[in-house]
Amino acid sequence: MMNKSGTRVLATLMVAAGVMLCSTFSHAADKLVLGFAQVGAESEWRTANTESIKSSAKEAGVDLKFSDAQQKQENQIKAIRSYIAQKVDVIAFSPVVESGWEPVLREAKAAKIPVILTDRAIKVSDDSLYTAFIGSDFLEEGRRGGRWLEDHYKGAQGPINIAELQGTVGSAPAIDRHNGLIEVIKSDDRFKIIASQSGDFTRAGGKQVMEAMLKSYGKQIQVVYSHNDDMAIGAIQAIEEAGLKPGKDIVIVSFDATKGGFQAMMAGKMNVSVECSPLLGPQLMETAKLVAAGKSVPKRIVTKETVFPMETAAAAFPSRKY
Ligand code: GZL
């Protein structure tokens, strides 16, 4: 027969075991907790990307913690640190720029929280700091823009002067859409990039930069190569205000293939938009669940995309999802 104190000790141990089991089970029974640090809300593409992530989390029964960094890296790092402190199951983010992530990713690794990159890539010396990267091949997107130019100007005389509207400085899409173009046109001396400046992926930025380029180069500009539809739409406004016809006097090459891009193409003001799908939510939720369950996942998951010349815009528009 156990004495009173022995019974008390046994009771305490059973309660402690119960709490532990319950917390383990309650955690297992709880939803997957995913902390997502978004770049911001700078473009139509980003809005569609955020919508895809939020709706997919709901559909997948994932408890999503979401933050908007207003395109500032320090805000994304703060958000990742807060997810580490909250002990979320998985962290995911779309890195606003390629560099500067090692310290905070080492903290996530030390906390045994897996990290998934979506949309944009990062440059790190140790790629064990992230588990997977789900996103487009921006270099190939740039090559597609360059190949469209080569086809469009087949047989034409040079010079063909290009004004380039770059995306966020240091971001993977800006670096690679530029490099992909160069890869294709570098051996064709008709093409010359006479101006190149960042509009930070926003409509206002695209308009501002285009106004300045038109002041400096005017009708010397034959092509605008814009790293996204939002900046291209801003540039189109500036071109029209300068009394020129976008899509005719100045050829417009753009990226994303958003609704705004399709509307500009159907109005004859944009010549082509290279697709870059923001609909990464379903793949992210599926990958997060596999990672949380300790399953292996591909390090690199490339989204499937195509190119929409203006001639195909009207037929394709009704089935577009963003
Ligand atoms: C590309 C994405 C870019 C889009 C822009 O995957 O990172 O950021 O091209 C967006 O529209 O702002």
Automatic annotation (TrEMBL):
A Gene Ontology molecular function term of the record: carbohydrate binding
InterPro entries (UniProt xref): Peripla_BP_I, SBP_2_dom
* Protein origin, superkingdom: Bacteria
Q: Which residues form a coiled coil?
A: none
Q: Where in the cell is it found?
A: Cell envelope
Main subcellular location: other
All residue ranges annotated as the Periplasmic binding protein domain in the record: 39-295
Signal peptide positions are: 1-28
Output the Gene3D superfamilies linked to this UniProt entry: 3.40.50.2300
Q: Which GO terms describe its cellular component?
A: cell envelope
- Identify the keywords attached in UniProt to this record, alphabetized: Signal, Sugar transport, Transport
Similarity remark: Belongs to the bacterial solute-binding protein 2 family.
> Mind telling me what this protein is named?
Simple sugar transport system substrate-binding protein
